[in-house]
Amino acid sequence: MSNNQNNHLDQLNQFNPIISINGTITNKENAKISVLDRGLLFGDSIYEVLMAYDSVVFLLREHLDRLWNSAEGLFMNIPISKNELSHEIIKTIKAAGNKISYIRLMITRGEASRFGLDNDFCSKGNFIIIVQKHSGHSSHYYSEGVTLGFADVIRNDVRALNPKIKSGNYLNNFLAYMSVKNKEKGAYESIMLNSDGQVTECSTSNIWIIKNDKVFTPPTTVGILAGITRETILKLGKKIGMEIREENFGAKDVINADEAFISSTTRIIFPATKIVSDLRDQKIGSGVPGPMTMRLLAEYRKFINEYINRYRDNDL
Ligand SMILES: Cc1ncc(COP(=O)(O)O)c(C=O)c1O
Predict the structure, then answer these.
(1) Does one domain contain both 182 and 208?
(2) Interval between CA 114 and ligand 1 midpoint (Å)
(3) Is 185 known to be catalytic?
């Protein structure tokens, strides 16, 4: 097994999730869905990944808002209201009873009543909530940082399948990840460029660079998922007085950055300390997690703690 696969497995050490299908809670052996579901037939589904600490779901409202935006982008009806879905999520994490939970929330367009693309050819959508115990990431990701590589495939164009839609069709990201995994051993994440050579994001995270004490991340118009962690970092960075900007940059800017990092819900911030490219393998900046990256990570952790304390006594 490669290091990359190990990396992912250490997050989900025992894969024994509690699963709700349309409100019925069960285990992975009994969680069933039709083989005619459009999610399976066409990748016709949307999803969110969230974290819960005890029964506090971090930034639940923001994730549900993005889910509804994804549905709108795909002319999909979500078969349940935001309030009801929130309650179903809480019900499922309480049934799982984990200290920290990884939640995968999925909506599919539903079972096809015949073959054909038209969205009238299917029944009501399904909602699926998968809750898995999360043991936290190994500390070396934070203390040593990760290696990035450049993907061979470009990011989906905003005029094709807009990356702002968080859809179950994840094959663009998968191919990007595989191209780095196969070619450049040791790269943890792959950076995708768009057809104009601008850096967009990584296969499962947003990307950031720091140069001359300024923090940069590509704007959403370049073709990325508007990461909830990204949005939060933008706010926190401004709050602590950092110069933080949404601006386009290219591959060379990543290679020549003073610091770089990736962001996502489950990882928060992983420093990116090395880069492998066609030219050479090299350190980013001094090759160790940089001070501004670590400052943002510390602020983010503080924000999570405050959030949990604020919502601990509310059910939502
Ligand atoms: C392509 C992509 N970009 C960015 C992110 C980060 O988004 P968030 O911070 O909302 O987890 C993800 C997370 O899954 C992703 O898949």
Answers:
(1) yes
(2) 33
(3) no
What residues make up the domain containing 88? 3-133
In this structure, the residues whose C-beta lies within 6 A of any atom of ligand 1 are 49, 173, 201, 204-206, 225, 227-230, 263-265
Tell me the per-residue pLDDT of 268-295, one tens digit each, with 9 for 90 and over: 999 999 998 765 679 999 999 999 999 9
For 205-246, what is each residue's pLDDT tens digit? 999 999 999 999 999 999 999 999 999 999 999 999 999 999
For residue 313, is it within any domain? no
Cα(225) to ligand 1 centroid in Å equals 6
**Of 32, 133, 166, 252, which one is the catalytic site residue?**
166
Taking the centre of ligand 1 as the mean of its atom positions, its distance from the CA of residue 61, in whole angstroms, is 16
Q: Is the pTM of this model over 0.90?
A: yes
Q: Which two tokens stand for residue 84?
A: 């009801």
On the question of pLDDT at 20 being above 50, the answer is yes
Q: Which of 102, 133, 164 is the endpoint of a domain? A: 133
155 shares a domain with 129: no
Task: State whether 158 and 72 are in the same domain.
Answer: no
Please, what is the average pLDDT of the chain? 93
CATH of the domain at 122: 3.30.470.10
pLDDT for 201: 98
